[in-house]
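Hi R.,

Here's the chain you asked about this morning:
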Amino acid sequence: MCVSNDPSAVLITYSLGSCIGVSIYDPVVKVGGLLHLMLPESKIAPDKAEKNPCMFADTGVPLLFKEAYKYGADKKRMIIKIAGGSQVMDASGFFNIGKRNYMALRKIFWKNDVLINKEDIGGNVNRTMCLEIGTGHVYLKVSDREEIEL
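And the predicted structure, written out as tokens:
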């Protein structure tokens, strides 16, 4: 997880397969953050959650917002963009971690009255997600497509 108000900063997260990248941006104070979450719930691995809460949707998302608030961001102004949640290493769909991550994330946002503005979710591709702090633009490089703005 990274949060910044440096207008020259570009935050990047790579290899979003079943993982989900969460981008938040407050255009008024030009503060943005990027989280790469791996699993839906911290209760499945409490020891790991204590050491690295950003691995999990239920502990990482609140930390991302709290860090942005330190820079003056306001939840009501946040632009939220997410990407990932693919099914890349589980052809049978038995574990369906990408879908579980996505559902957990939507539940967290719903409970906190936060709307997702844009998303690129699912499929069987890897994604790289970039957030430009100076502009708030989010770009995706998807394994089977050209780079797009989300």
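Helices lie at 46-51, 57-70, 97-111.

Let me know if you need anything else.
M.
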